[in-house]
Amino acid sequence: MAVILCGGGCGEQTVISNQLFESLIDPDKPMLYIPLAMRPERYDGCLTWVTGEFQNVKHGNIVMIRSADEIMKLNLSDYSAIFIGGGNTYRLLKQLKDSGAFDRIKTYLDNGGIVYGGSAGAIIFGKDIDSCLYMDENEVDLQDTTGFNSIFDFSLTAHYTNKNEIKTETATEYLNQYSKTKPVIALPEEDSLYTDGNIVKIIGTRPYYIFNQGKKQKFEPGVEYTRDEFINIVKNI
To answer: Quick one: angle between helices 89-99 and 101-110, nearest 10?
Structure first.
């Protein structure tokens, strides 16, 4: 398993994350792109965007699906990696769960798969996606908001501190309350969390924050932790 969970950036913000991604994938195999967090009328534009995002990454051709049902027909091991883009986190997770694709992706990860998620595509790999309810509307009435739980029982949120002061204050108030029951890692757009299940590293250029038990602590990127070290850091906040 390898997951890169990006705080929602693009272009220059994701250069470091993209370099790590390139080092992990087989450039001769195609990459699967899942744009389902966006509305269908935007998919063509999404493909143009992701093609530009990875123009400096050595990779195979990008195969974009247009429905979660398509994932059920694919052999995911045929792909070098899965890239899951941003949009509405609840719309994305509902489609994956309703189709059965959620379990297919989980099995793919459990068998050594590589996933790169951005914004909504990253948040779904936390324990629960209500970590982003302050900025994403549950417009699809999703009832089961549990994510893939790939980061040791922690939830995740994106775009933290990249918005204006009022939006950052709103996010902070929500995350303080949310973290009383579920610890959450709040990434800015410039940072990504990488884990292979044994180590954890936040890569990027701006501070990230961890909320736990109603408290917030600031951390700098670039430090690698073992799984147990990272868990203990979060628990001790």
So the answer is: 90
Residue type, 28: D
Residue 161 is assigned to a structural domain of this protein = no
**In which domain, by residue range, is 8 found?**
2-139+146-152+191-202+221-226
Q: Which residues pair with 208 in a beta bridge?
A: 219
**In 3-state terms, what secondary structure has residue 15?**
helix
CA distance 180 to 90: 22
Per-residue pLDDT of 32-64, as tens digits, reads 999 999 999 999 999 999 999 999 999 999 999
pTM of the model: 0.98
How many residues does the structure list for the chain? 237
C-alpha dist (Å) from residue 225 to 78, 114, 128, 196, 200: 31, 20, 23, 11, 5
Domain total in the chain: 1
For 4, the 3-state DSSP assignment is: strand
8 A C-beta contact, residue 188 and residue 215 = no
H or E stretch at 31? strand 31-34
Q: In angstroms, how far is the first alpha carbon of the chain from the final one?
A: 27
